[in-house]
Amino acid sequence: MPTQQYVKTEMVDRIGRIRLDRTARYNALNRTMVREIVEAMETFDRDERVTVIVLTGNGKSFSAGADIEEMLEATPISMELLDPFADWDRISRIKKPIIAGVHGFVLGGGFELALACDLIYADPATQFGFPEVGLGVMPGAGGTQRLTKCIGRTRALEWLFTGDRMKAEEAERLGIINRVTADVEATVLAMAERLSNQPSMALRLIKDAANKAVDLSLQDGMEHERRNFYLLFATADQTEGMQAFLEKRSPIFNQQ
Ligand code: CAA
């Protein structure tokens, strides 16, 4: 794992865990921290011992967004040269499932980071929001796109225009998160444990196909899905899964 100042990582069984660790600043995401999150994800993505990645906050919150102090002096040219959001794009290329467990504030870039994950579970007291408008700017790491694709334009615009904070229950009702849970840590780890026993190649190709559904036409998406389906017939897990069904036993996937 590359050097880390603002995140903590560990591998437990087949789960790669990443914890944000800049608690004195509500895990505000400076560029180094974003780079560390991305590098940790990529390291777990390449590690064959890992099936699923878990991302959680630490201290009082998941994350209060991009580091405002770091952005204060930015200019269009400095942004163009640094291209801070290029690192965020790398999260979209992670092939394994990423589960986010969030609590406290999930604001701005913190909300965008959660939305870049695949499953989101939240503590009941979590507050989500895009406060960027109150800073004279707007979300820049996918917030306007992902929220709009998720809940539709008019509903997304109300949150984006006002910068109001959304309660966890509301986020669940709108389908932005999977579930509100009183014990985020336990819920996230239980789900990660379940997924880590699923066939890993099927998980990645399911994620890949679902991602395509967001961008492609139905017909192109279906063709992509079909190719992924056919590809899975090259895996030992396909033989194991189908044989286990016919032998009326539980399959054991990911056998080395
Ligand atoms: N960037 C930098 N520092 C931050 C920060 C951020 N996003 N959020 C909190 N902090 C720092 C505060 O400056 C403060 O530092 P000091 O102790 O050195 O003064 C420390 O964290 C604690 O914060 P507060 O004293 O403000 O704590 P609070 O409990 O009163 O409020 C909060 C908590 C509601 C999260 C508040 O800090 C806040 O509103 N933060 C900013 C949220 C925000 O606007 N996020 C959007 C950022 S822009 C963005 O994300 C763009 C993008 O699309 C990528």
From TrEMBL:
<dbReference type="InterPro" id="IPR029045">
    <property type="entry name" value="ClpP/crotonase-like_dom_sf"/>
</dbReference>
<protein>
    <submittedName>
        <fullName>Enoyl-CoA hydratase-related protein</fullName>
    </submittedName>
</protein>
<dbReference type="InterPro" id="IPR001753">
    <property type="entry name" value="Enoyl-CoA_hydra/iso"/>
</dbReference>
<dbReference type="Pfam" id="PF00378">
    <property type="entry name" value="ECH_1"/>
</dbReference>
<dbReference type="InterPro" id="IPR014748">
    <property type="entry name" value="Enoyl-CoA_hydra_C"/>
</dbReference>
<keyword id="KW-0456">Lyase</keyword>
<dbReference type="InterPro" id="IPR018376">
    <property type="entry name" value="Enoyl-CoA_hyd/isom_CS"/>
</dbReference>
<comment type="similarity">
    <text>Belongs to the enoyl-CoA hydratase/isomerase family.</text>
</comment>
